[in-house]
Automatic annotation (TrEMBL):
GO terms for biological process: cell adhesion involved in single-species biofilm formation; negative regulation of bacterial-type flagellum-dependent cell motility. Residues 254-387 form the GGDEF domain. Residues 31-58 form a coiled coil. InterPro entries: Diguanylate_Cyclase (IPR050469), GAF (IPR003018), GAF-like_dom_sf (IPR029016), GGDEF_dom (IPR000160), Nucleotide_cyclase (IPR029787), Rev_trsase/Diguanyl_cyclase (IPR043128). It comes from candidate division WOR-3 bacterium. This is GGDEF domain-containing protein. One of its GO terms (cellular component) is plasma membrane.
Length: 392
């Protein structure tokens, strides 16, 4: 083909076809690349969606646990008795940490011992034996050092556990403003993470604060119910106790007796040697009553130089014998650091439920009548109300 023009046209057409083919192939590659990228993005979006669902479920679970945690904390801080606080703290840690064993120990400040008062997961037969001296085992060392102790700290301090039945993983001291109340200890299969450690620390601090509040409440109750001089119940608190015991006596058909005590010659000592000596006599007598009467007997200061004693589940003749023995003991004791012809003695009257009354006022009135007869008969004696009052 010799026509140059035709050759030029054919060349142009060929080049155009090549360009078109190249463009088409390039578009296909771009389209394939775009489709690949779309598939990758779709997979990534699916992965993120699944991850978001997982995170949302985890967040929902954490929120649920946090709600449970905070509701448990509210219950704990609302308790007004130390034993109730201990039980709440044990239950909270057992559930929240998935612990296998939790034990709560109170400090006996006088004996320097830690006694178990609440627990979950331990063998009941071993509970009376789980007593730690301060500094003994991980529980005692946490109390002595006043710092949380775990396995690592235990190994560093070379702590030996005295009881193979309870080898706690963590022990937290319960401290409020340098006052140690006790230790809470627990065992679980997994290590604590930082969030859990912080949570246990919060529980320990809140528990110590709740115990301090309980102590403050007890002090306030004492101020309202305890006579400041003798440390016995005041008459208001004693009457409340009398109502409680009388209701219990009625419910279980038990007897109940009551004695009113009046000190002989107290006015003489008070006027002759001063009120300070008179106060010392009252304090020493109150202490002697507490020592020589039974633990179940309830003693109060009736007012001035008078005392009142309640004898639950005790018949009148039994209570009268107890009072007579008490008078014999008081006669022999020397309450004065002075030389005096007069001795400290008392007169007393005894009445009981149901013989002499079915309510507090009747019983107190009849005991007072018996006391009046004892004083009129020469003092230094005990009489019981027998409708016609007789000397014992």
């Amino acid at each position: 083909m010799d026509n140059p023009f035709l050759l030029t046209i054919l060349s142009i057409i060929l080049v155009g076809l090549i360009v078109i083919i190249i463009v088409i192939n390039s578009s296909k590659r771009k389209k394939a690349s775009i489709l690949t990228q779309i598939e990758i993005l779709t997979d990534e979006l699916d992965r993120q969606k699944k991850e978001n669902i997982s995170l949302r479920n985890e967040l929902r679970m954490i929120t649920s646990l946090d709600n449970l945690f905070f509701s448990s904390i509210i219950r704990l801080t609302s308790r007004t008795e130390p034993a109730e606080i201990a039980r709440e703290a044990v239950g909270l840690l057992l559930n929240y940490l998935n612990a296998t064993q939790v034990a709560f120990f109170f400090l006996d400040e006088r004996e320097k011992r830690l006694n178990i008062v609440a627990q979950m997961g331990l063998n009941e037969n071993w509970l009376p034996k789980l007593v730690y001296e301060v500094g003994e085992g991980k529980v005692g060392m946490a109390a002595e050092k006043r710092i949380p102790l775990g396995k690592h700290e235990s190994e560093m301090l070379r702590i030996k556990e005295p009881y193979p039945v309870f080898e706690p993983d963590m022990c937290y001291p319960l401290v409020y403003q340098n006052r140690l109340f006790g230790v809470i200890a627990f065992k679980r299969n997994e290590q604590l993470d930082e969030r859990e450690k912080n949570m246990v620390g919060v529980v320990a601090r809140i528990t110590a604060t709740a115990l301090q509040n309980t102590l403050s409440l007890t002090i306030m109750r004492d101020l309202a119910s305890i006579d400041p001089l003798t440390k016995l119940y005041n008459i208001g608190a004693f009457r409340d106790k009398l109502v409680e015991e009388l209701n219990r006596s009625k419910r279980f058909q038990h007897p109940l007796s009551l004695a009113i005590i009046d000190l002989d010659n107290f006015k003489y000592f008070n006027d002759t040697y001063g009120h300070q000596l008179g106060d010392q006599i009252l304090i020493k007598l109150a202490r002697a009553f507490g020592i020589h009467l039974r633990e179940t007997d309830i003693i109060g200061r009736y007012g001035g130089d008078e005392f009142i004693v309640m004898f639950p589940e005790t018949k009148k003749n039994e209570a009268t014998k107890i009072m007579k023995d008490l008078l014999d003991t008081i006669r022999l004791e020397n309450f004065l650091n002075i030389q005096s012809e007069k001795k400290i003695t008392f007169s007393a009257g005894v009445a009981s439920y149901p013989e002499d009354g079915i309510n507090p006022s009747e019983i107190i009135k009849n005991a007072d009548e018996a006391l009046y007869e004892a004083k009129n008969a020469g003092r230094n004696q005990v009489r019981m109300h027998l409708h016609k009052v007789e000397e014992i």
